[in-house]
Structure formats: C-alpha cells, structure tokens
Amino acid sequence: MKKLCFTAVLxxxxxxxxxxxxxxxPTLGEVKLPVVAEEETVWTSTDYKGKPVxxxxxxxxxxxxxxxxPAVMAAxxxxxxxxxxxxxxxxxxxxxxxxxxxxxxxxVTALYEGGEVAQSLEVNGLPHAILFDKKHRAIKHWEGxxxxxxxxxxTQLADVTx
Length: 162
Hints:
Elements: H1 2-18, E1 32-35, E2 41-44, E3 53-58, H2 63-79, E4 84-89, H3 94-103, E5 109-111, H4 115-120, E6 128-132, E7 138-143, H5 149-160
Parallel strand pairs: 3-4, 4-5
Antiparallel strand pairs: 1-2, 3-6, 6-7
Helix pairs in contact: 2-5
C-alpha cells in the first residue's frame, strides 16, 4: 500500500512538472500620457475601463508611421465610438508631433512621451500597434507597416466590438 501511495504521489508530481504555466497576457494597466493639444491635458487609460483600446506607437520622424496614419484614421472613423484609438508618439516634443500630424492631416488623439509605456509593453520597433480587449488585455499586435494594415485593423476591431 505504501508503494502504491508513493507511486501515485510521484506520478502526480511528475505530471505537474511536465506542464508549463500559460504565459502571462500583457495588460494595459494605468497609463497616463500628455495629449498634443492647445490646452495641456492628460490621457489616462483607466478612463476607458470596459472599452477596447487600440494603441499605435509612432515617431514623428518615422516614414513608416506616417504611411500607417491613414489606416489609423480609418479605424478611428469607423470604430472610434466603440474603441478608444490613440497614437502614442515616442517624441518628447509635443510641437514635433503636432507638426507631423498637421502635415499628414492626422486627426486621431495624439499622445507623446510614450517611450516608457512602449518599453513596458515590449514595443521593439515602429510603427507598432496593440489592441486591448474590454478588460485591457493585449489580444493582437502589429509590428511594422503593411499595405494591408487598414484591413487588418478593420477586421480585428469588428471582432472586438461584437
């Protein structure tokens, strides 16, 4: 009987060691970033609890980011009432972001000083977009620019707003 109990305990222990825990899903957490606007304001992620969030990380100097601006604006136009869509610029200079936005007719809420947030979310290149669900868990990443980016945004945003 002792042998049987020992064998059972050993089998359970061996089985437990074989299974790896599921990877932790990145979450948005509390993010506060300044908004590029005439009056100084701060965007806070916790203001959008229960609402999906699409964060697109960009740089005012980045040509591929500028190419992705129409896709971001189209997403905002179609889903902006159901999904919080923001462009998070790595720039620390609000004027540089405002100039790039104006130059390209970019009307999506533009945040700046996003370097620390990008680092915490493991953003490795630009542009980089992350879609968070209603519980602010990361559910989709896009790295770099692709001509199909606009269609991909539309498909994923349609799914997350169902």
